[in-house]
Amino acid sequence: MLTVFLQFLFSGLTVGAVYALVGIGFNITYNATSIINLAQGEFVVIGGLMMWFFSESLKLPFFVSVVLTIITAGIVGLLMERLTIKPLKNPDLLLMIMITIAVSIVLRGILMFYFGKDPYVYPSFTEGEPLSIYGAIIQQQTLWVIGITGFCIILLFFFFKKTIIGKAMLACAVNPTAAKLVGINVSRMVMLSFVLSAIVGAIGGMAITPISLMEYDKGPMLAVKGFCAAIMGGLGSNRGAVLGGFIIGILESMTAGYIHSGLKDAVALIILLLILFYKPAGLFVSKAMLQLRKF
Amino acid sequence: MLSIKEIWKSFGGLTALRNISFDVKQGDIKALIGPNGAGKTTLLNIVSGIYQPDTGEVNFLGERIVHLSPAKIAQKGVSRTFQHVELFGNLTVVENVMVGRYAKTKTGFFSSGFRLPSIMKEEREVQRKSEEILEYVNLVHRKDEIASNLPIGEQRILEIARALATEPQLVLLDEPAAGLNIKETRELGEIIRKIRGELKITIVLVEHDMELVMKISDSITVLNFGEIIAEGTPLEVQKNPEVIVAYLGEEEELQTGYNADT
Amino acid sequence: MKKEDLSAFLVFIFFIILFPILSGGAYTLTVGIFSGINALVAIGLCILMGYAGQVSLGQAGFYGIGAYVSSVLSLHLGFPVVVSVILAMVAAAVAAMILAVPALRLKGHYLAVATLGFGEIINVILNEWGPGGPSGFGDIPHFGLAGYTIDSTTGYFYLTWGLVASVMFFSINLINSRTGRALRAVHDSEAACNAMGLNVAALKIRVFILSAAYAALAGSLYAHYVTFISPGSFSLFYSILVLTMVIVGGITNLWGAIIGAVVITVLPELLRRFEELDVLVYGLILTSSLMFFRKGLVPILIEKINKLKGFAFVKH
């Protein structure tokens, strides 16, 4: 009983960690620009596939591959922002949504072209015996995923709360005019937010691929679930996204395990709709904050 | 006609309106004036149903309207214009007015897809009535122009024309003279008087343009910091020391000297 | 009906009647049929987005409901095809209403994601509980009317485009009427609509139902033509495809929806040889349309024609 439960719990935490990272990626762009970047899921895929490319295809050493993957993801984020976001003056919301969707399709198309439709995998970061907790088998990579996610979260926390650049980025969405007036280079902050969110997504992709493999078209589902995680805690709140991500991951895992695996995706989707319909500001948001948010 | 009783409204920690009570007599032009931030637009928004007050009552023709949605209140006969012109920018001038006729017409949402004679007849009637209204406010020569292309003066008149299309008994005008020059303001004043005199419509006017206010209002209520500080005829209000202090901050007579007959 | 619309409509009918006679064989006609089916969905989405200003990334869900409900009713329950199609449209309308009531309080991004989520849920449902599961099912009866079954490609072409013409007629009337004005007004200022006594929520819900019904009609047509359906055809990719059609054609113009549908349906046929590139090409088309040809083909074409007219007449 306990064994099975723990098994599902850990697999839920694992996949939940990736959702949390995607959710955080959403928050980073949203906090800096008020844009919801629906291409967020593609960064995760890029992380996994590029890591394969560098470490398996080019046979580069592990750390080199990691760094190159991160750089690649950053460049993709940069290009996306420079080529499609920046040139638009005063875009309306609809246009922004569709552009991010369009970019996600372009990215997916490129990935499909180079990688095809097959799943890709590479070895776990550390080889070794899986752990056994009350009978549940926990792969080492699982711990890596959870650990790396936790590490990212802590780093980002310090970045946004303690560094000038981080705070500047947050200021940009709240009031870009005021931000400009105090000397913040809004355009550069926007660019940085895309780069950062791309890297965060890619890190998730890199970590999860040894466990669940990576295919070119995993992006949209990841984006939807990551978005769900992000709004669960209130769009813009990273703590909320983390909590949301883990909750979704665990619920998903429990549903797949105890009820029916085909319904796995439905879990996040139903939660998403319920939140959007009844508590779009997030589950943990107070009434006072509600008045400040705009939908 | 309109009765406002003990309205309180706060936004978070800020109290926008304190214990506001006053009446508007049928057929009157009632002006709401006061410095910026006094709560005038908030009050208008409460009357038209956009905000709910914390406590208090709003009665229109004896009926409690404070809990109704804006659309329902509009259907009861209260229409309005907005501080920042809220025209249907991409529609033509005449189409804007035609939308005002929506609540007075019956063609169903889906039945509009069929070119039935009864539907075409109603459509012609709406077109005719809308052009009539535009003619009344001297805008019919612009009827096929895109609304957002009009100069601000004509946009404000169009908003009023659209409000008239709903056949209201009460019209709330939110700073209709904002951005208008002297000539346009004078024309506005004429139209407002025409509406009251010929169409027997009651008007509540929020305005900063004192010349216009003093010239056309029957009764004025003065707000400051969310409270009523004076009420009365234009002459009475002009001479009220508290009003003067609220606007000018010192004791100096307002050099207006206009009365309702000029 | 406005003059331009009337002349466009007549040209359109003319074209439809002549096309099968002038064009090549079954292949061209088949592409034509699929263009027509997609056009139906695109017209509905165009009204929803271009006129009413809402957004939907879930049209594939209604398309799928149309296909599956109509197929199951006619194949498994023996209903006549025409009845099945109508009931499928009703089913989609009900689904739209259930979704719309909570969803249309949302705006922008949130509405987009909500409709996306809806489309995905339908996809999961079809995969789990649709006959045949992910593999789908076949033997769906062809379209039939009063004993006469339409099973020739030419016949189906006329059926499809005849329906497109009817839907266009209905839609053009709708846009130029009280309803169309109200929808465009909602798009411009909901606050003003409320102040004029319009029930904005009801309007949004109805236009949503309309777009769902069009998509379901298209889905049924699709199912009864190809006689074999599987959930894979009713996915997010299709929703985005339809979105591309509307944007490429011109989001504010109904004719644009048809043109966009034709262009985007024909394109993969031209790209047959470069199958690995099709996703990328769609993406690039959508991106460049959004960034450079935001108005869409038809409005831009109209502008150019008007400029030419002006050029022809302004002579000193």
Average pLDDT for all residues of chain C: 88
Order of strands, main sheet of chain C, comes to: 1-2
Number of strands of chain C: 2
Poorly predicted spans of chain B: 257-262
Number of helices of chain B: 9
**Residue ranges of chain C: pLDDT <50 for 5 or more in a row?**
none
* Largest interface, Cβ cutoff 8 Å: A-C, 42 and 42 residues
Specify the biggest β-sheet of chain B.
6 strands, mixed
Structural class of chain B: alpha/beta
So what's the overall shape of chain C? Answer: globular
Rg over CA atoms of chain C: 20 Å
How far is it from the N-terminal to the C-terminal residue of chain B, by CA? Answer: 27 Å
Give your account of this protein's structure.
The complex is a heterotrimer of chains A (about 300), B (about 260) and C (about 325). Chain A is an all-alpha fold and about 300 residues long. In chain A, about 75% of the residues lie in helices and about 0% in strands. Chain A has a two-stranded antiparallel sheet with strand order 1-2. In chain A, helix 1 packs across helix 6 and helix 5 (about 140-160) packs across helix 6. Chain B has a six-stranded mixed beta sheet, sandwiched between helices. In chain B, strands 2-1-4-5 form a four-stranded antiparallel beta sheet, covered by helices on one side. The longest helix of chain B is centred in the middle third of the chain and has 20 residues, at about 115-135. In chain C, a hairpin with a 2-residue loop joins strand 1 and strand 2 (about 150). Chain C is about 75% helix and about 0% strand. Chain C has a two-stranded antiparallel ribbon with strand order 1-2. The interface between A and C is large, with 42 and 42 residues.
Summarize the structure.
The complex is a heterotrimer of chains A (295), B (262) and C (316). Chain B has 262 residues and is α/β, with parallel strands linked by helices. Chain B has helices spanning 40-47, 70-76, 93-100, 117-136, 152-165, 182-199, 210-216, 234-239, 241-248; strands at residues 2-11, 14-24, 29-33, 55-60, 63-64, 78-80, 170-174, 202-206, 219-224, 227-232.
